[in-house]
Amino acid sequence: MNGKHLVKLGLEKKAIALAQTAATQRETAGLTRDDILSELRAVQQNPAAYAEGGVYAPLAAELLAQQAVLDARRGSDLRAQPLPYPTWGADLIDPGAHRQMDVAMRLPVSRAGALMPDAHVGYGLPIGGVLATENAVIPYGVGVDIGCSMMLSVLPIQPGALRTDDATTLLLKHTRFGAGVAFEKRDRQDHDVLHESTWQDQPILRHLYDKAATQIGTSGSGNHFVEFGTLTLPTADLGLDPGEYLAVLSHSGSRGFGAQVAGHFTALAERHHPTLAPEAKKLAWLPLDHEDGQAYWQAMTLAGRYALANHHLIHTRLARALNVTPLAQVSNSHNLAWKQQVGDQELIVHRKGATPAAQGQLGLIPGSMADPGYVVRGLGHPGALSSASHGAGRQLGRKAAASTLNKKDVQAYLTTRGVTLIGGGIDEAPQAYKRIQDVIARQDDLVNVIASFQPRVVRMDTGSEDI
């Protein structure tokens, strides 16, 4: 009996070796090749009948395992209709975001979902989409910028005590923006996240370590920013008396490290589901009880910690330069997946551009480069899977903003609001975003607003067309 006979039977990979071992034993027992082939066909047709014991048991077990994989792949077919999901601020959301959310709710692993009022079209899951799945994590349900997050530091300085020129100088000296950008080697800071043993657990993490170490404490492009502004606290909260404070607000993520992790595991997820419908291709998932799902979860959570480490270093630099210690700090991630109890079972809740808003949980919802942001406390709404918006949300895509907005109008908008901008492209202009006040108003059952933040001096990456 040789391999060609086994391949003709349709056996593959490990099953061929197991069949060869069993065939050798049957030849020793005196059976002819035709007899053995007949028995092998019988095992193929009904492996469960042979799995309990005997010479063909290992082969039968392998065939059953292969069948389970095939059944899981066939199970990747979409539901005929999406599961129902609630929407906040439906009048603010474009139809494309709803279409994407509908596809996500047709996945066989989906169990619940919600759409936030800042929602707009993204890749895979829409930005502002919240999706709960069972035993599955979707790399594009988390997003490319894994762990993208916010951080606010309230400083013991009156807002008017820091001059605009001085704030500009501090931001230029102590922040860095853009793809591939890093601090000069002599100015780089260290952080505990770079000393975690997790970096050695996977080849991709070992490969990306140097990139992560080089870019620590910096920000990316697009809508990432660091800004000085005025925090207005109407009533005592955050351990502070009511009043106005100088504050630093930042929006940043996991840099090139997170993006490459996202790309690697998205490709892996797509290979797990080669028959997934084209409209759901970017929603391919990884089972959490599979080694690939466990590897992504480990890399994702590391990227989330790395992103928050970037914020901490940014805020530490600026506070040190001002010779102060922050009075209070708030931070949250809004591109991540969490294990969360939903009803009577643990599900994986993806928040792609959505803020965790469990009962009493603090969060940050920014506006645009000239519009206010808000410190909020979650109300734990079960229908929203304890979530809220992550910002104002785009109403114009980047290309549309660049082609339709007038630089003079944008600059006038900034000037009227007393905002000084360093960098920033017209694709990030305030007019490209929904009005943050409208977005906040449509989620008053998701969060309570406890403070507002008005930007004063804003630094962003240099856009393709600067304002």
TrEMBL record:
<feature type="binding site">
    <location>
        <position position="224"/>
    </location>
    <ligand>
        <name>Mn(2+) 1</name>
    </ligand>
</feature>
<feature type="binding site">
    <location>
        <position position="334"/>
    </location>
    <ligand>
        <name>Mn(2+) 2</name>
    </ligand>
</feature>
<feature type="binding site">
    <location>
        <begin position="366"/>
        <end position="369"/>
    </location>
    <ligand>
        <name>GMP</name>
    </ligand>
</feature>
<keyword id="KW-0479">Metal-binding</keyword>
<feature type="binding site">
    <location>
        <position position="251"/>
    </location>
    <ligand>
        <name>Mn(2+) 2</name>
    </ligand>
</feature>
<feature type="binding site">
    <location>
        <begin position="390"/>
        <end position="393"/>
    </location>
    <ligand>
        <name>GMP</name>
    </ligand>
</feature>
<feature type="binding site">
    <location>
        <begin position="223"/>
        <end position="227"/>
    </location>
    <ligand>
        <name>GMP</name>
    </ligand>
</feature>
<keyword id="KW-0547">Nucleotide-binding</keyword>
<dbReference type="GO" id="GO:0003909">
    <property type="term" value="F:DNA ligase activity"/>
</dbReference>
<feature type="binding site">
    <location>
        <begin position="334"/>
        <end position="335"/>
    </location>
    <ligand>
        <name>GMP</name>
    </ligand>
</feature>
<dbReference type="GO" id="GO:0170057">
    <property type="term" value="F:RNA ligase (GTP) activity"/>
</dbReference>
<dbReference type="GO" id="GO:0006281">
    <property type="term" value="P:DNA repair"/>
</dbReference>
<dbReference type="GO" id="GO:0042245">
    <property type="term" value="P:RNA repair"/>
</dbReference>
<keyword id="KW-0692">RNA repair</keyword>
<dbReference type="GO" id="GO:0005525">
    <property type="term" value="F:GTP binding"/>
</dbReference>
<dbReference type="InterPro" id="IPR052915">
    <property type="entry name" value="RtcB-like"/>
</dbReference>
<feature type="active site" description="GMP-histidine intermediate">
    <location>
        <position position="390"/>
    </location>
</feature>
<keyword id="KW-0464">Manganese</keyword>
<dbReference type="GO" id="GO:0030145">
    <property type="term" value="F:manganese ion binding"/>
</dbReference>
<dbReference type="Pfam" id="PF01139">
    <property type="entry name" value="RtcB"/>
</dbReference>
<feature type="binding site">
    <location>
        <position position="145"/>
    </location>
    <ligand>
        <name>Mn(2+) 1</name>
    </ligand>
</feature>
<protein>
    <recommendedName>
        <fullName>3'-phosphate/5'-hydroxy nucleic acid ligase</fullName>
        <ecNumber>6.5.1.8</ecNumber>
    </recommendedName>
</protein>
<keyword id="KW-0436">Ligase</keyword>
<dbReference type="InterPro" id="IPR036025">
    <property type="entry name" value="RtcB-like_sf"/>
</dbReference>
<dbReference type="GO" id="GO:0006396">
    <property type="term" value="P:RNA processing"/>
</dbReference>
<dbReference type="InterPro" id="IPR001233">
    <property type="entry name" value="RtcB"/>
</dbReference>
<keyword id="KW-0342">GTP-binding</keyword>
